[in-house]
């Protein structure tokens, strides 16, 4: 009986991680770039993330300053190989998003964790989740209401760069910040 219990726990954990992706709609085109009329940098974002970044309907200027605009325009945080530690370069970006989210209680954001192609699907789902949760934890620590955040992992399933080298893998190790309600107005 104890053997069954110990075998069931890892299976249950893997299934819970995998069900986190079930409610997220996959994208069809990973090569979306910034349009000339936009002030939001969407290079490196999936199609859904780019559309969310461009969607200014209902956008808010509250919590947006000239100093934090460049950081709010950045919607991707990158990670080192096999790591979920935030880099020093990303703290200002995440701090700007935290300030905006605190000032706009109706804003909601999906934090989608991604990995490079190396490793098993199960391992990468868990690593993508750790990355999304690291960003989520930082935002909550800086005053953001947890109800405004959703952390999801796609693992290695949605690469931005389909290459099989270090440059491609570096681009794919990321968390995207996708505003689902009331994005920052950056114009």
UniProtKB/TrEMBL annotation:
Biased composition (Low complexity): 31-43
Gene Ontology CC annotation, any one: cell outer membrane
Membrane topology: Lipid-anchor
Major site of localization recorded for this protein: membrane
PROSITE patterns: OMPA_1, OMPA_2, PROKAR_LIPOPROTEIN
Gene3D superfamilies, per the entry: OmpA-like domain
Any one GO BP annotation for this protein: cell division
SUPFAM superfamilies per the UniProt record, alphabetical: OmpA-like (SSF103088)
Swiss-Prot/TrEMBL keywords: Cell cycle, Cell division, Cell outer membrane, Lipoprotein, Membrane, Palmitate, Signal
Entry's localization field: Cell outer membrane
Extent of the signal sequence: 1-22
Residues covered by region (Disordered): 25-44
Domain (OmpA-like): residue spans on this chain: 66-183
Function field: Part of the Tol-Pal system, which plays a role in outer membrane invagination during cell division and is important for maintaining outer membrane integrity.
Subunit structure: The Tol-Pal system is composed of five core proteins: the inner membrane proteins TolA, TolQ and TolR, the periplasmic protein TolB and the outer membrane protein Pal. They form a network linking the inner and outer membranes and the peptidoglycan layer.
Family: Belongs to the Pal lipoprotein family.
Entry protein name: Peptidoglycan-associated lipoprotein
Origin species: Acinetobacter defluvii
Gene this protein is translated from: pal
